[in-house]
Amino acid sequence: MKEIKANNYSIFFKDKGYIELYNHIQSENYSTIFIHLDNNTNIHCLKVFLKQIQTFDYQTIVSKSGEENKNINSSVIIWEKLSNNNGDRKSLIINLGGGVVGDIGGFVASTFKRGINYINIPTTLLSMVDASIGGKTGIDLGFLKNQVGTFYDPKMVLIDPLYLDTLNESELISGYAEIFKHSLICDLIFFNKLISQQNSIDFKNLKTIKSSIEIKNKIVLKDRKELKERKALNFGHTLGHAIESLFLENNKRLLHGEAIGIGIVLEAFISNKIFDFPIDKLTKIKNHILKIFNRVDFTKSEIDNIIKLLIHDKKNTHGKVNFILLKDIGQPIYDIEVENNLILESFNYYSN
Ligand SMILES: NC(=O)c1ccc[n+]([C@@H]2O[C@H](COP(=O)([O-])OP(=O)(O)OC[C@H]3O[C@@H](n4cnc5c(N)ncnc54)[C@H](O)[C@@H]3O)[C@@H](O)[C@H]2O)c1
After folding, report:
1. Fewer Cβ close by (within 10 Å): the C or N end of the chain?
2. For residue 33, what are the domain limits?
3. pLDDT tens column, 315-324
4. Where does a domain end: 121, 143, 166?
């Protein structure tokens, strides 16, 4: 499978990726190579990786898994490990893990000795189609996500769906929400292909993964720093993130993808009301999301709280909540303010 050209790096697939990675390691003459993992990918993914690639010298750095560890403490531990184990400006970090490993590892790489090389080998569906692509690195500040970070591209990205074999089912399905979102903001043919999957959806399909990466990459190439086009990637995320935050606060479990799935339905409904987004496509979106994720019940007070939480959205400027809406599939509209009663209506639509 042919690679995808990104900003200053390439995204390789399967066997060719391991050859390219090995050649890169040989040609760059790195002083030390650190494979950054979390406690789960250390068990499940390191052995798979080592089986695929020719032998080279490396040390491992294992972070604690989970969003709650995507913070400055984990970064300090990695900086110290690098520093205490001969890390220097010619060191390389290979992030072998999900979005959390990639985001922290990329952040650490961008700051250690004012910037060293890193490579992403994503091991979750979400990190394959989204987090590993586009050069955003970062950590959370308390409960606020991605408050500290950098734009710093990897030297390459290697995609191999083999890693998905050990990922639990719910994490796998969760990542699919971003694939579906990519189709909505960019590509009617891809959208039709996704919704035509009748009974079982092949979440590990490499062609689907590649199409999804191509969309994200195309958008990032147009607008790396999220001044305009890249904002489209936030479709479904304004309400999706607020829903995610509410569940976090209430200690109720909801996967990121589930929250984004609901956000997609709500924001497609609002798009229909404000910009006449076609009703037949809105119905198809709702049906597809509800085929994948169980419907979640919301009380009136939960919806009120979700609306209050919108105030923390990263796209807000000058105290306004800015939505990304769709005029049609592939036609995003940026920075739209939405009345609260329309948000309430959108929850009614989702619930019935
Ligand atoms: N930088 C970006 O542009 C960007 C984009 C989207 C999301 N993100 C970030 O990505 C993060 C979410 O990433 P995620 O969904 O990959 O979560 P994650 O990294 O927490 O991984 C999910 C869980 O799966 C485990 N795991 C990972 N790969 C595995 C495998 N192959 N087998 C078994 N277990 C495995 C992990 O240890 C973890 O427990 C969030 O912090 C989000 O902010 C970043």
Report:
1. C
2. 4-166
3. 677 777 899 9
4. 166
